[in-house]
Amino acid sequence: MRFATIVGARPQFVKVAPVSKVLRQQYEELIIHTGQHYDYALSAQFFKELDIPEPDYYLECGSATHAVQTARMLIALEQVLTKERIDWVIVYGDTNSTLAGALTAAKLQIPIAHIEAGLRSFNRSMPEEINRIVTDHLSSRLFCPTETAYRQATNEGIIQGVEVVGDVTYDTLLRVQSRLDKHANVLLSRLHVSPEKYMLTTVHRAANTDDPEAMGAIAHALNRLEMPVLFPVHPRTRACLQRYNIKWKKHVQLIEPVGYVDMLALEQSAYRILTDSGGVQKEAFFLGVPCITLREETEWIETVQVGWNVLVGTRWQSILEAVALPKPPPPQSNPFGQGDAAIRIVQSWQGKEK
After folding, report:
1. Catalytically active residues, by annotation
2. Residue 73 CA to chain centroid, in angstroms?
3. Which domains does the chain have, with CATH numbers?
4. pTM above the 0.90 mark?
5. Taking the CB of residue 38, how many other CB atoms lie within 10 A of it?
6. What confidence tens digit (pLDDT) does each residue in 48-85 have?
């Protein structure tokens, strides 16, 4: 069989790494990069760090409004998928690249596999939620990371081709975990912080970055913390912060985005992590660092249920209260699997061939 894997954003690069490695042992794969994340630190560096094969196509769709960006991707993907003889299209997660890949494949009657299927925030004001729902309902194979995701897909009437395989990002984290201490030693020294003596924060979702009041409240909370704060700033977030003229106290360090392994190293050594990123919420859980999520809901409800993630929105008082909570007891089990999701995905295809 011949697969086309469609990616475009940092979270997808992390997910594709283990799947591509196992998939290519049995099948042929093309990687199509839409160019949704076009900054070097958010794209090429991840391919190099994670030993992902160079994309066969780079579509250079770039940043734009949701409609314009998705339209560019649809046009470019149709040209590629019409040219290549593809048996399956694989899409990951919930970005515009995911949606465009699924729509293009469906129109061309190419079956779709959705990895990280079944997630729901139940907040349709989030573009990602629309992308997830449409992609799941167009897909022939839904590879769910958790039992919760499986139930949510089946509750919408998607019965065929749905299975729990575990979370592929856990596969990737386990693969690089032995490198984290070395990276942390270099990074923390350069940033003048000590292990478990700083907070780490990331903010990139439009619901926060596009709202001056939300960003102002988050900044107010960070400025009131009594511990150094490291804030790797996404380019889009930096533009918003400059527009809002937000002032920072000296203990808040705004730094450039870092690569995947460096980010995990910063997460592992942090006292607490404050984020609106779905991926960082999971990584915090995997690494045993309490997480404060700057949203009202999460797709990763399992992290909340075991006490390792607290949802606070952007209320500065709630943020400070959550930071002060004691570290929870270790979870009794990992709802995200055993780190063999990629193997289980490829074995599932092998089983269908027989």
Report:
1. 204
2. 20
3. 2-167+337-348 (3.40.50.2000), 177-324 (3.40.50.2000)
4. yes
5. 17
6. 899 999 999 999 888 888 999 999 999 999 999 999 99
